[in-house]
């Protein structure tokens, strides 16, 4: 299976009998505000507009453990990650499509974590 899905393939999948769970993982590495602008807020960006039916997943809180001795974004506790994914509607019998609004880092992390934990059908939306 290809790890990337195009917008047209996603549209077809959403119209099919087994639509994928959509995870919106908007995130930016730096939260520093330039010229007095507020820091980036993925949840606010999600609230401003997202794919219909998509669920926001917070990279810092749901796809990583708290920063500390193990780094800025260590792997999350598996039980906490599983609970977060279940809250988002992810289950082993439904495909998942992840996307973000930037360079793909957030979506790639979600894709990797889901594949690493054994989800059989996860793809990243081409173009975010």
Helices and strands in order, then pairings?
Blueprint: E1 4-5, H1 7-15, E2 21-24, H2 42-48, E3 55-56, H3 59-62, H4 78-87, E4 96-99, H5 105-116, E5 122-125
Parallel strand pairs: 1-5, 2-3, 2-4, 4-5
Describe this entry's structure for a reader.
The protein has five helices and five strands. With 128 residues, the chain is of the alpha/beta class. The chain has one domain: 3-Layer(aba) Sandwich (Oxidized Rhodanese, domain 1), CATH 3.40.250. A five-stranded parallel sheet has the order 1-5-4-2-3. The protein is globular.
What features would you highlight for this structure?
five-stranded parallel beta sheet, alpha/beta, 5 helices, Oxidized Rhodanese, domain 1, 128 residues, globular
Beta content: 5-15%
* Number of E strands: 5
CATH architectural category: 3-Layer(aba) Sandwich
CATH superfamily: Rhodanese-like domain
Q: What's the alpha carbon Rg, rounded to whole Å?
A: 15 Å
Strand line-up across the major sheet:
1-5-4-2-3
Q: Could you state the order of secondary-structure elements as H and E?
A: EHEHEHHEHE
Largest sheet: 5 strands, parallel
Q: What is the mean pLDDT?
A: 91
Number of domains: 1
Kindly name the structural category.
alpha/beta
Instruction: Name the CATH class.
Output: Alpha Beta
What low-confidence regions span 5 or more consecutive residues with pLDDT below 50? none
Q: Total number of helical segments? A: 5
């Amino acid at each position: 299976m290809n790890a990337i899905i195009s917008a047209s393939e996603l549209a077809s999948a959403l119209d099919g009998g087994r639509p994928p769970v959509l995870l919106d993982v908007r995130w930016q590495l730096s939260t520093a505000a330039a010229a007095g602008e507020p820091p980036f807020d993925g949840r606010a960006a999600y609230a401003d507009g997202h794919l219909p039916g998509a669920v926001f997943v917070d990279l810092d809180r749901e796809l990583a453990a708290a920063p500390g001795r193990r780094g800025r974004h260590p792997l999350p506790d598996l039980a906490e990650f599983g609970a977060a994914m279940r809250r988002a509607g992810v289950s082993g019998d439904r495909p998942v499509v992840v996307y973000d609004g930037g360079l793909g880092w957030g979506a790639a992390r979600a894709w990797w974590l889901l594949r690493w934990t054994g989800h059989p059908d996860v793809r990243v939306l081409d173009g975010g």
